[in-house]
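Hello,

Our lab assistant flagged a job as stuck in the queue for most of the afternoon. It eventually completed. Since we weren't sure the result was trustworthy after the delay, we are filing this so someone can double-check. Below is the sequence as submitted and the structure that was eventually returned. Let us know if re-running is recommended.
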Amino acid sequence: MTKEFMKQSSNQGDCSPTTSSPKNDAEWAPTTEWVRSWKEKLPLQTIMRLLQVLVPQVEKICIDKGLTDESEILKFLQHGTLVGLLPVPHPILIRKYQSNPGTTAWFRTYMWAVIFLRNIDPPIWYDTEVKLFEIQRM
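-- returned structure --
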């Protein structure tokens, strides 16, 4: 978020009545351009797809049955299925572990931390000079 937006939002979110300061004429108000700029950034594709399919179905049920109570609509939505409506999720990529110096150092540090922490009681590490070392192949 931009600093300007956060400042404006914090001013907008203040619901406490202030009688000591008069209203500022230059008070921020959302514009069509501002709404469009945020709407483009929101991931609304899935929600819009659901609405395109479900709204006509709900309207048809309301007209056919003459519903004015929302309980029947809620039952319809609860017992419905979204199979075929939502996009197919991306396939899961399975990658084989490939060692590199960074992951090797992380794994070694993690393993030594586990060994050290699991052997604190009884205190076998006290009064010792444990040093980590690595043997490099030439």
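-- support follow-up --
The delay was a queue issue, not a problem with the job. The result is valid. Residues 16 and 67 are 40 Å apart (CA to CA). Helices lie at 3-12, 32-41, 45-65, 70-79, 101-118.
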